[in-house]
Amino acid sequence: MHLHRFEKIWLMLGAGGLALFILLLCVNAFAMGMAPPSNMEMIDPKKVAETPPFDKPGLKQIGDKEYDAYMTAFAFGFSPTKMEVPVGSTVNFHVTSPDVIHGFQIPGTNVNFMVMPGHINSATYNFDKPGEYLIICNEYCGAGHQVMATTIIVK
After folding, report:
1. What is the value of pTM for the model shown?
2. What does the angle CA 119 – CA 70 – CA 136 come to, to the nearest 5 degrees?
3. Where does the Cytochrome oxidase subunit II copper A binding domain lie (predicted)?
4. Within its chain, how far is the Cα of 53 from the centroid?
5. In terms of residue numbers, what domain contains 109?
6. What secondary structure, in 3-state letters, does 65-83 show?
7. What is the pLDDT of residues 104-123, one digit of tens each?
């Protein structure tokens, strides 16, 4: 079969681009340690209520207007049920679940992730506007899913 010179060039460029893509994918996956977008912290899901800091969920101040929020998502609620922070606060959310997969979303922000049993998922958000922020479960988790919510009050 006879191929025109320009067809050969385009085929070589396409094959070279594909080979480069596969090479970069392998380098990223194996040499650079590609992993899911979390630090893969895990605890025993059967012992969430006994494992610090999830044994006493809530806000802990770690700096000037900076807080760590340790939360648990369970069927069909969040603990703690309400939190208050001052305007301009940065909150680092650390959330896990003892039972099933839940969602964690603060509408109107970029905070949105899945909460899997035993996995500690984290996100950070700076609350620079006062108001009441709703946290909802956006992953169907059972018959009472629609009532699963909590609030953050920013004063």
Report:
1. 0.73
2. 80
3. 54-155
4. 18
5. 41-154
6. CEEEEEEEEECCEEECCEE
7. 999 989 899 999 898 899 89
